[in-house]
């Protein structure tokens, strides 16, 4: 079971578009659009949102995201009016970035509170705030496992855009490990799709992968497979099939 999402918008087309984008990042997460009025106009509809909320739940709860103020009120009313034992929260988050972050977090098996927090943290990405850098040199891990490091060259032309960032985050989400990726002077949590996108890494750039924990080797191997394959995308001309160690 994974946490589900409901996208509440004044526009049916916008809700469907955000749902489509988020679903590309999280194929196993139930993401339901709830946009527009019953007659196809602009606005929000309580019954539509309530029905989407019911469909999105698989037993792990539902996070609702919204576009404008009245959509928030409709979403909150739908949650308050629940008559079934569904846990649901309305996230205060930018719609698109919040939906992507929440979807990837839910795909990794996180609980309701964690998925809601992932959506809310998207505010930092929208506002251009720096993400907290990770310092694995000072990280104390209960298992006592050592630090693994490996450097790769981004082989796909577009670099760490939305899809590769989501694949990267999903690859390590369920592992018992702390993983960071460094690009230049920035080092971010490999589980954060928005932080990875915020690195601005392009084709041909070098990334340093650092992992600590019981599954450190599994994490590095999983990321190596993704990075060395160019995420299944067209390689950057001249990048060459190489990996730095």
Automatic annotation (TrEMBL):
EC numbers, comma separated: 2.7.1.121
Main enzyme class: transferase
Record's catalysed reaction(s): dihydroxyacetone + phosphoenolpyruvate = dihydroxyacetone phosphate + pyruvate
Location, primary (coarse class): cytoplasm
Keyword match Cytoplasm: yes
Transmembrane segments: none
SUPFAM superfamilies in alphabetical order: HPr-like (SSF55594), PTS system fructose IIA component-like (SSF53062)
A Gene Ontology molecular function term of the record: kinase activity
Coiled coil regions in record: none
Annotated compartments: Cytoplasm
Sorted UniProt keywords: Cytoplasm, Kinase, Phosphotransferase system, Signal, Transferase
Signal peptide boundaries: 1-15
Domain HPr: 147-234
Start and end residues of each PTS EIIA type-4 domain: 2-126
Quaternary data: Homodimer. The dihydroxyacetone kinase complex is composed of a homodimer of DhaM, a homodimer of DhaK and the subunit DhaL.
Protein function: Component of the dihydroxyacetone kinase complex, which is responsible for the phosphoenolpyruvate (PEP)-dependent phosphorylation of dihydroxyacetone. DhaM serves as the phosphoryl donor. Is phosphorylated by phosphoenolpyruvate in an EI- and HPr-dependent reaction, and a phosphorelay system on histidine residues finally leads to phosphoryl transfer to DhaL and dihydroxyacetone.
Name listed for the protein in its UniProt record: Phosphocarrier protein HPr
Organism, as annotated: Allokutzneria multivorans
Gene: dhaM
């Amino acid at each position: 079971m994974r946490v589900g999402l409901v996208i509440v918008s004044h526009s049916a087309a916008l809700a469907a578009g955000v749902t489509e984008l988020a679903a590309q990042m999280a194929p196993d997460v139930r993401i339901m659009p709830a946009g527009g009025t019953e007659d196809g106009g602009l606005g929000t509809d309580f019954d539509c949102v309530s029905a989407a909320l019911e469909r999105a739940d698989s037993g792990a709860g539902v996070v609702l995201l919204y576009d404008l103020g009245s959509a928030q009120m409709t979403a909150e009313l739908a949650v308050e009016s629940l008559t079934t034992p569904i846990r649901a929260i309305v996230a205060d988050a930018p719609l698109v970035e919040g939906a992507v972050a929440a979807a990837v977090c839910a795909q990794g098996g996180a609980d309701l509170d964690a998925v809601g927090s992932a959506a809310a943290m998207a505010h930092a990405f929208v506002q251009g705030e720096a993400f907290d850098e990770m310092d694995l040199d000072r990280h104390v891990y209960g298992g006592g496992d050592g630090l693994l490091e490996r450097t790769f060259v981004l082989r796909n032309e577009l670099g760490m855009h939305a899809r590769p960032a989501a694949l990267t985050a999903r690859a390590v989400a369920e592992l018992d490990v702390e993983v960071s990726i460094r690009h230049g002077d920035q080092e971010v949590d490999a589980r954060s799709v928005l932080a990875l996108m915020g690195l601005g890494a392009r084709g041909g750039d070098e990334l340093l992968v650092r992992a600590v924990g019981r599954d450190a080797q599994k994490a590095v191997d999983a990321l190596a497979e993704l990075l060395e394959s160019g995420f299944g995308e067209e390689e950057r001309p001249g990048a060459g099939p190489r990996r730095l160690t």
